[in-house]
What we know:
Elements: H1 3-18, H2 22-33, E1 37-47, E2 52-62, E3 66-73, E4 81-85, E5 88-93, E6 98-102, H3 118-122, H4 127-130, E7 131-141, E8 144-153, E9 162-168, E10 174-180, E11 186-198, E12 201-211, E13 218-228
Antiparallel strand pairs: 1-2, 1-13, 2-3, 3-4, 4-5, 5-6, 7-8, 8-9, 9-10, 10-11, 11-12, 12-13
Amino acid sequence: MRTIEIVLIFVSTSLFAQYPSGEEILNRIDDNLSSENRVVTSKMIIHGARSDRTIESKSWSEGDTKAFTEYLSPAREAGTKMLKLEDQLWIYSPSTDRTIQISGHMLRQSVMGSDLSYEDMMEDTKLIDNYDATVIGEEVIDERNCWILELNAKNADVSYQIRKIWVDLERYIPLKEELYAKSGKLLKRMELSDIRHMSGRWFPGKMVFKDMLKKGEGTEFIVEEIQFDVDIEEHVFTKASLR
């Protein structure tokens, strides 16, 4: 074997060895983003074709199986509530005084005209449970050095079969993410910023979602207050709370 070939093999092997495993990175990301439970007060700014809308809400979640959200404003949305239990989702509308279950193809519909679907709102499982990951390179995002990860779903039930994540290599928090269909078509893009250190973890204060299949400037999700690992009364995660 020629000397140049040996050198190239050595260099490529050395560079590859510098990367942690995809599994290790996913575990570190999950440590930042997952929690036993949390309470979040937030606002969602939907940038429409003609005007913007701001919707405020408060959410309670327990692990990745239970979540309850109440919309606080504007007046037309206030009192709307969502309840997730395992893989089931119910929505209560005060204007009709009815509770309906969202299932099947309805889960792919937009939440209040935003760039998020009901599937997106429900998905809170750990990445390591659903994906295999490989480090495919490095890039600088917002002056932060990042690893680029390619994720492939472990089963067909996952909403996005392929994901590409740019992970801050010091803080282990995603700064950018692309979500793909199995065909390789780019479906959504997400950018995370205003990274804060709280309760011993890094967490984004702002997320911008863009549905690549629709027009518009995307949807901003801004965390105004968040509490991790707090006591949440069990009755919050019941259908009775919807009314």
